[in-house]
Amino acid sequence: MVQESTARWAAAPGNWNGEDSSKEIKDPRYSPTPLGYKKRYRYEDGNPKQIGRWILHEYRLSDSLIKNDMNYVLCCLRKNERGNKI
């Protein structure tokens, strides 16, 4: 189990705030051990119209699947049209 605090990344002029702790990604057909983790971030810049408009999903492999000490993540960035209040 990975224990982590809610992350916050700075990106001028705002921040990417972690909305939740990492969720395990599993394939029960093969093993109860997690294959990786998924985390969701929301961009905030102080403008109420921007809150929830940009969403970032971060995916990373479980440490047990990585053969070296490098840490990689795959990110999917999307514009949340439902969050658009304009």
TrEMBL record:
Region (Disordered) residue spans: 1-31
PROSITE patterns recorded: NAC
Coiled coil ranges: none
GO BP, sorted A to Z: regulation of DNA-templated transcription
NAC domain location: 1-80
Entry annotated with the keyword RNA-binding: no
Highest taxon above the source species: Eukaryota
GO molecular function annotations of the record: DNA binding
Keyword Transport listed: no
Biased composition (Basic and acidic residues): 20-29
A Pfam family matched in the record: NAM
Name of this protein: No apical meristem (NAM) protein
High-level lineage: Eukaryota, Viridiplantae, Streptophyta, Embryophyta, Tracheophyta
